[in-house]
């Protein structure tokens, strides 16, 4: 906007004036000592201009079946700079290097753009950082550093996809989030498939073992959801949280659900919900509640994993971790909720029931609204995609495992360990 430009120009003029005043004082002092100060003004002004330039960092990825581990990587990358540019790899590149993605590019773009630490997105990014693309990042996008996790990212020939960036001295590494991976999540999904023929059961069990990385399958006390390897801490929740509450006069909108396998359909309904008020409060149901409503093998992601995925969304202001199934009068009063909303696409139609309707209270108060879901995607949709293409994903995982083995074997041989 023009006003922003004026403010920015005035700020720059003030900085230059300060620089000149400083130079004048320094130059006077130096002249007393007989030291020539030519060029000092230009040097300080250059420093002021450089100080204004934000550090721009780049991180790319497939971001397939995006989870809180991806979000945490983006959070860490953003902390290494002032602006985070994210490249989302094309469907064709993923297929060529890893196998078919579970979620298509347009859904993956919705997911990445919704992460609150992301400033800019480059669609159809290449899987490998080529010399030409690296030059484009540096020259056209003004990227200062390329970021990736400490896990290997290998090309089909077994080489490092970030070798050029490392040789250029423009690479920075972040720590991989332990306890979650897309392959692990696929393994969990397959446990949700209950009605199968004996032949299908054999194939799915084999695939589940492939994707589990050898972890033993542990279950909760109810015999349902597999226990994840994620250990939540208060610090991680704080890192993901906005840390700000609503203002006294804020219009607070409330939406609840399982938000399992957080996907583009969730993101889009949250976006619309946020547009209806000033503060979006999201209730996330407990694992026990989800299991009771959807079956013992769900949810796939546990409560804290689901909470972090929702917290990472830029449209969400706060979450209730373990929200009650029914939206009570007490909940509405406690959180000063102005409007309760629900999408038209969901795993069940409980909100349309006359008896045991979880939204009976907000409906009676006249503060309940059904909003049209932009995308026809549910958690079941994602599970069906996996099951329908189980052979392709099995091959993809076997290929990945072989490449990683080769990578670590070569590193061991070079290091002499």
From TrEMBL:
An example Pfam family from this entry, by short name, is: CTP_transf_like
Entry keyword set: Lipid biosynthesis, Lipid metabolism, Nucleotidyltransferase, Phospholipid biosynthesis, Phospholipid metabolism, Transferase
Keyword Phosphoprotein (UniProt): no
Some GO term, biological process aspect, for this entry: which one?
Answer: phosphatidylethanolamine biosynthetic process
Which class of enzymes does this protein belong to? transferase
Where is composition skewed (Polar residues) in this entry?
Answer: 204-214
| CDD domains in alphabetical order | CCT, ECT
- Name the protein family: Belongs to the cytidylyltransferase family.
- Name of the molecule in the record: Ethanolamine-phosphate cytidylyltransferase
Organism, scientific name: Chenopodium quinoa
Q: Which gene encodes it?
A: LOC110689739
């Amino acid at each position: 906007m023009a006003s922003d430009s004026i403010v920015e120009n005035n700020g720059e003029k003030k900085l230059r004036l300060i620089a000149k005043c400083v130079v004048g004082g320094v130059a006077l002092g130096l002249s007393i000592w007989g030291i020539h100060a030519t060029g000092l003004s230009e040097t300080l002004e250059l420093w002021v201009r450089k100080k204004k330039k934000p550090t721009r960092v780049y991180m790319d990825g497939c971001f397939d079946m995006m989870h809180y581990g991806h979000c945490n990587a983006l959070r860490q990358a953003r902390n290494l700079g002032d602006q985070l540019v994210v490249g989302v790899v094309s469907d064709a590149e993923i297929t060529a290097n890893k196998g078919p993605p579970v979620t298509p590019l347009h859904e993956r773009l919705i997911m990445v753009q919704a992460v609150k630490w992301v400033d800019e997105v480059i669609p159809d990014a290449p899987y490998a950082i080529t010399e030409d693309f690296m030059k484009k990042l540096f020259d056209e996008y003004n990227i200062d550093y390329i970021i990736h996790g400490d896990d290997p990212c290998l090309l089909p020939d077994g080489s490092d996809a970030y070798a050029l960036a490392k040789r250029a001295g423009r690479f920075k590494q972040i720590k991989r989030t332990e306890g979650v991976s897309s392959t692990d999540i696929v393994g969990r999904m397959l446990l949700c498939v209950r009605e199968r023929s004996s032949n299908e059961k054999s194939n799915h069990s084999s695939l589940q073992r492939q994707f589990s990385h050898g972890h033993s399958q542990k279950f909760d006390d109810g015999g349902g959801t597999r226990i994840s390897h994620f250990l939540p801490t208060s610090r991680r929740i704080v890192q993901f949280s906005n840390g700000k509450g609503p203002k006294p006069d804020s219009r607070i909108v409330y939406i609840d659900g399982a938000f399992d396998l957080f996907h583009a359909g969730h993101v889009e309904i949250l976006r619309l919900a946020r547009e209806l008020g000033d503060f979006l409060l999201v209730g996330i149901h407990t694992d026990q509640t989800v299991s009771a409503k959807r079956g013992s093998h769900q949810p796939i992601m546990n409560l804290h994993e689901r909470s972090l995925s929702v917290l990472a969304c830029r449209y969400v202001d706060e979450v209730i971790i373990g929200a009650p199934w029914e939206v009570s009068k007490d909940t509405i009063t406690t959180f000063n909720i102005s409007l309760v909303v629900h999408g038209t696409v969901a795993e069940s139609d409980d909100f349309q029931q006359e008896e045991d309707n979880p939204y009976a209270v907000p409906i009676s108060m006249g503060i309940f609204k059904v909003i049209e879901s932009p995308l026809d995607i549910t958690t079941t949709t994602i599970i069906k995609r996996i099951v329908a293409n189980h052979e392709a994903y099995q091959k993809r995982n076997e290929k990945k495992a072989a490449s990683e083995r080769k990578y670590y074997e070569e590193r061991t041989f070079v290091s002499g360990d």
